[in-house]
Design a protein that fits this description.
Elements: E1 6-8, E2 15-19, E3 24-27, H1 29-33, E4 40-43, H2 47-69, H3 73-78, H4 83-93, E5 99-101, E6 112-114, E7 121-122, H5 152-165, E8 169-170, E9 174-176, E10 179-180, E11 184-185, E12 197-201, H6 205-211, H7 216-222, H8 239-243, H9 249-253, E13 258-261, E14 268-273, E15 290-292, E16 298-300, H10 313-316, E17 342-353, E18 356-368, H11 374-402
Antiparallel strand pairs: 1-5, 2-3, 2-4, 6-9, 7-14, 8-11, 9-10, 12-17, 13-14, 15-16, 17-18
Length: about 400
């Protein structure tokens, strides 16, 4: 270990979780994958943090098992008991790439440097619910020009979340691989169209991770993309090598949308634009649902708080892709379950307008497998349409009476 390396995400506790006994704890990546007894029930995070961390957990497990252990549905079923042990071995191998500070720091290119000494960004900017710069939030009044000294566990969580959900627009610049980054940046992959994410929920966190892994066959049919490898496996996180992973499954699960460099004991960081990731229709996120707009172009189901997820449930559960609607790819695992069984889904996301975060949304439900039948989904959608018409009529009547 280099003397400068400090705070390893595999060993240090930084992920809030809910235990089976109903208590909350903060655990490390290593503890999650060593939980063979199933005492960790779920993540205890807000929707965008939950998705960012869950995508990291999925990426680790998918990379650890590789395409051979997950080649088809039968292989996926057989891999259930292997997820923890194989992922633990994988983390042991790549332990040196999960430090928060120092050489080869996690999700931070080594060759990122500030354009000049005064071109640093307060680390507050990495935390969406903190006020920083010209961004104010309702319940935070602790912003300072120099920024705050944030604890390591919050920085680790915020780094992962920021790489997934950071806004587009004008940004500070830095030097990465010998060239200055662009002033105008694209939004991070998970922020596209404020997409609504859907995951299958198991009885434990480890079971949830397994349930949302994709087989090689599903990836080929649903994404037409290579599995690739995570960014931390690259020898150097140069601009060119990082960009090569943008069109791969694992490269997209844990993105490098911003060039960031943290320094231990500093309230500021180096921050600039990172890799630009493809969007719809060139790429669809494996954990989001797609439907067609009136002009037949694909769009993500949004996490708009004015239209809660249950209203789009027929599209969220559309595993057969009827009418151009496509569910999150992990839901295809439900096709092998008998009709008398049930399953639990969690949906959620971050709703934003341009560079402004508006709201977080989440909703979960336990449903019968029979709900996936085409006729059942059609009846549900018909009922939702009827309810929408009644709502409009009631609103019109209330306004007429008020006038």
């Amino acid at each position: 270990m280099n003397d400068e390396n400090y705070y390893n995400l595999i060993d240090e506790a930084w992920i809030p979780v809910l235990m089976k006994d109903g208590k909350n704890q903060t655990v490390s990546l290593g503890k999650i994958f060593k939980d063979t007894d199933g005492v960790i029930a779920d993540l205890a995070l807000n929707p965008y943090e939950r998705m960012a961390v869950f995508r990291l957990l999925l990426c680790i497990a998918q990379a650890a098992l590789g395409p051979d252990r997950l080649k088809d549905e039968d292989a996926w079923k057989a891999a259930k008991s292997d997820v923890g042990p194989v992922s633990t071995d994988y983390l042991r191998k790549w332990h040196h790439r999960f430090f928060l500070y120092g050489p080869h720091a996690f999700l931070q290119p080594d060759d990122v440097v500030a354009v000049r000494d005064d071109a640093m960004t307060a680390c507050d900017k990495l935390v969406f619910h903190f006020s920083s710069g010209n961004k104010s939030t309702l319940f935070d009044h602790g912003a300072t020009d120099a920024g705050r000294m944030l604890p390591d566990e919050l920085l680790a969580l915020s780094l992962v979340s920021f790489q997934n959900f950071s806004a587009g627009g004008l940004s500070g610049t830095c030097n990465w691989s010998g060239a200055e980054t662009e002033r105008s940046v694209k939004g991070a992959p998970c922020r596209e169209q404020s997409m609504l994410f859907t995951i299958l929920v198991g009885g434990t966190l480890m079971e949830s991770i397994w349930m949302n892994l994709l087989s090689t066959k599903t990836i080929a049919n649903g994404l037409s993309a290579e599995l690739g490898r995570p960014v931390w496996e690259l020898e150097t996180l140069s601009r060119s090598s990082s960009a090569e992973l943008a069109n791969t499954v694992l490269g997209h699960l844990v993105p490098l949308s911003r060039a960031i460099k943290l320094s231990k004991g500093s309230s500021a960081c180096v921050l600039g634009g990172g890799v630009v990731y493809p969007q719809l229709p060139a790429w669809r996120d494996q954990m989001a649902s797609v439907k067609l707009k009136e002009d037949e172009t694909p769009t993500y189901i949004s996490s708009d708080p004015s239209r809660l997820p249950w209203r789009d449930l027929a599209s969220v559960l559309q595993i057969r892709g009827t009418g151009g609607r496509k569910s999150a790819l992990a839901l295809h695992h439900l096709e092998s379950l008998p009709d008398d069984k049930s399953f639990t889904i969690w949906t959620g996301g971050l709703y934003a307008e341009k560079a402004k975060e508006i709201a977080t949304v989440e909703w979960s439900a336990t449903l019968p497998v029979s709900m996936l039948d085409e006729s059942a989904l059609q009846r549900y959608e018909t009922a939702i349409d009827w309810a929408e018409r009644q709502r409009s009529a009631l609103r019109f009547a209330a306004r007429t009476y008020s006038d």
